[in-house]
Please model this.
Amino acid sequence: MQLPSQEADYFFSLFKPLLVYTNQKFQIIPAIKKPEDIEGYPLEEIAKIRDTLYQNPQLFDYFIQENTHNLSNSDISIIQSWKGFVQGKFFVFRYLKNYTIFLTSEQPPKAYGVLSLYSSFEEIVGSTLPRLVETVLLPFKNKIVSDGIFKSSSIFFGSGIRNTLKDSYELAKTKFGIITSLTTSVSEIETTDVAQLKTYLKSQKNLEQHWDEILILKNKSSELKQLYYQEIGKIYAKKYSKQWREIGLNNVWFAFFEATPIASGKTQADVERTVKQILTHPQQQFVYYFHLKGK
Model:
């Protein structure tokens, strides 16, 4: 998803003069004196001017105060909003209908819904995701855009990293939602304890990273305790099922109590009878039953 061409034109009608202003103040590329001159230089050179701007955010105010370009109130409002820029490394994670997901590389993860300018992100970074990029995100007319200057890594990530990023994406959505505006402060969403616990128990990695939080949450109510035991059982059933299939097990029922398989049988009824014999009645409600089917 990208901005309509007219909006992209408007963006650059503000951004390019700001770059020229920055260049004049610091004499980074002396030959650049007007916005049209920028087109004659590679992005690597323009990035030096762009970086200088963000390193000296007071330039946004100076540019507005001098107002040599007869800025309108709307122009000024947009440029002032750019002081809320977000600069860093992001994983271009997923192409969606309304925007592209940029996932932060730092903790806690945040997921931004970003629009491109003239070229689609797929044209810029390719169709194979995720890809690690360095860029700057800016607010623009109630949307988030990249400023159009990228440093893109050619590294392709294996399944381990991709799974980790999927977990980070789910956690980011639970904590903050998908962020689609930089003009309002970003704070943690008031999520239910159930949604939070499900996210923490989504994978083995999340389980290990958030163990202390899990222990606190699961003891807040009987509902959360029940959810904890069921989700833990799912994680370890998945872990054991590959080993069981390798030794030829097929169409077998298992009972898990937390991470431990405690009973097995040909039918669920067989396993339930065994569970009743070995666990107390209060413990039985926390058992997770798993059916190992054929490949």
Q: What stands out?
A: The CA atoms of residues 101 and 113 lie 5 Å apart. The two ends are 39 Å apart (CA to CA).
